[in-house]
Write a structure and sequence with these properties.
455 residues
Length: 455
């Protein structure tokens, strides 16, 4: 069963009938996750970097390791005394006192499809270390759990996924949709935020349909639905009409309302505009946004088009990172954190930047992959995750890795712990439960919130 994505016209336009289709498939069964107390965050933003970002070239460099481990890049100081990053993250280095680095996330799943599933659902796939197809029996993505527990009264969905679903490597992988919760919990997915004009056109009323006429259509639909037994269909249809009717909601998707300077600051590419749209949606009140930094995992065997580069750099890693991946990430993520801070959103928005795993400690040429210079293989044994906002201790370093950044040396953490931290920040008990359509309970998260992350 493919994930539900509103049907896109060639330039990314979402048609009005597809917004109405979002009302189908909602669930009537109760959900019950206890609040953990006063939430730290009103919103969560996950910036997901699929493909496997190398910890050694970014947030956990090992300058004193042998060359085959430390790689070709140097390191630079940051705003935090004693903390160093890879040399190609100069902008983020200056902001290091505004976010925390977790250096000890670890698991043993070694392929993109199942590892992305693990990160995006908090659950291991039954086919570990593989690229499994989508299945209606999949665990729901994190945003679907939020939709299940906290339906939005402003948007058809409580979660919006941008620049997705991710191609793993050629088709969308599992972990992006509602899974066994059904289509009624699928996040609203926007494939390419760069097609802003067509996207907004799909949310706008045609010239011949005035707001009063839309109201009359809604009343007609309601009269036809009065004999329906499933009230949730009517409720979600009303939510879809509300989206068409509410100017502020439609405007949240309109990137043309941003200044040219702001759009340039984020970067005029899919990654940058996805993160900018994420900020607009958070500002409009969406409680959960996932922005896929790249829409494909592929790295070394792509063209020279930076938009098509993912982080899967088996070979040619240093050229790919230097010329394509790190400058774009450094610019965009810095602009995102700065913009959230300047607008007062960072204080109650938890930002998490993570991928499915890291890269291998030793540099080597892999004969079965494109490229002529060495790279790094998949590596789940140890990798880094960033947190910012909502009271996160800026400049903190949680956990540590060994001398090769191969395995945790202190405070080992799991993807389940990362997931538990996100839910706990929203005031959703990670040890609580949600229910499927048959009212069977499932635990919200398998891990525990990360200790010492917040002030």
């Amino acid at each position: 069963m493919l994930p539900f994505v509103p049907r896109l016209a060639p330039l990314g336009r979402i048609h009005r009938r597809d917004w109405l289709a979002l009302g189908l498939g909602a669930l009537a069964a109760p959900a019950f996750a206890k609040p953990t107390g006063k939430p730290r965050a009103k919103r969560v933003l996950v910036v997901f970097t699929p493909g496997g970002v190398s910890q050694l070239e970014t947030f956990d460099p090992k300058p004193n390791a042998p060359e085959e481990v430390r790689g070709a890049f140097g390191t630079i100081p940051t705003a935090v005394p004693g903390l160093r990053f890879g040399e190609h993250l100069p902008k983020l280095a200056k902001l290091a006192d505004q976010f925390a680095v977790v250096r000890s996330v670890s698991h043993d799943d070694l392929d993109h499809g199942s590892a992305c599933y693990l990160s995006l659902t908090g659950q291991f796939h039954s086919r570990k270390s593989s690229n499994p197809p989508l299945s209606p029996a999949d665990y729901p993505t994190l945003g679907a759990i939020v939709q299940r527990l906290r339906p939005s009264d402003q948007f058809p969905r409580s979660a919006v996924y941008l620049n997705g679903p991710v191609l793993l490597p050629e088709i969308p992988g599992p972990g992006n949709n509602g899974g066994f919760l059904g289509r009624g919990c699928d996040p609203l997915t926007v494939a390419d935020p760069g097609a802003a004009k067509e996207l907004v056109a799909g949310l706008s009323l045609p010239g011949e349909v005035s707001p009063p006429r839309l109201d009359s259509r809604r009343e007609l639909l309601a009269s036809l639905d009065r004999t329906a037994t499933e009230s949730t269909y009517r409720e979600n249809t009303q939510a879809a009409f509300k989206l068409l009717h509410t100017k502020s909601v439609r405007e949240a998707f309109d990137l043309s309302r941003e200044s040219e300077q702001t759009r340039d600051a984020y970067g005029r590419h899919r990654s940058g505009q996805s993160c900018l749209l994420a900020r607009r949606l958070l500002e409009a009140g969406v409680p959960w946004v996932t922005a896929f930094f790249n829409h494909t995992i592929r790295g070394q065997d792509k063209s020279e088009e930076t938009n098509e580069y993912g982080w899967d750099t088996h070979n040619d890693i240093f050229a790919a990172l230097k010329d394509h991946l790190l400058p774009r990430f450094d610019q965009t993520f810095t602009a995102l954190l700065t913009d959230l801070h300047d607008r007062g959103l960072l204080k109650d928005t938890l930002v998490c930047c993570m991928g499915e795993f890291g890269r291998a400690p030793k540099v080597a040429l892999e004969k079965n992959f494109a490229g002529t210079s060495p790279g790094r293989k998949h590596w789940g044994g140890c990798y880094s995750v960033l947190f910012a906002g909502a009271g996160v201790s800026g400049g903190a370093v949680i956990g540590s890795s060994d001398q090769q950044a191969a395995y945790p040396q202190a405070d080992p953490l799991t993807p389940g712990d990362v997931v538990a931290t996100l839910f706990d920040a929203l005031g959703i008990d990670p040890a609580g439960h949600y229910t499927d359509p048959a009212e069977r309970p499932y635990r919200v998260a398998t891990g525990e919130a990360i200790a010492g992350l917040f002030r």
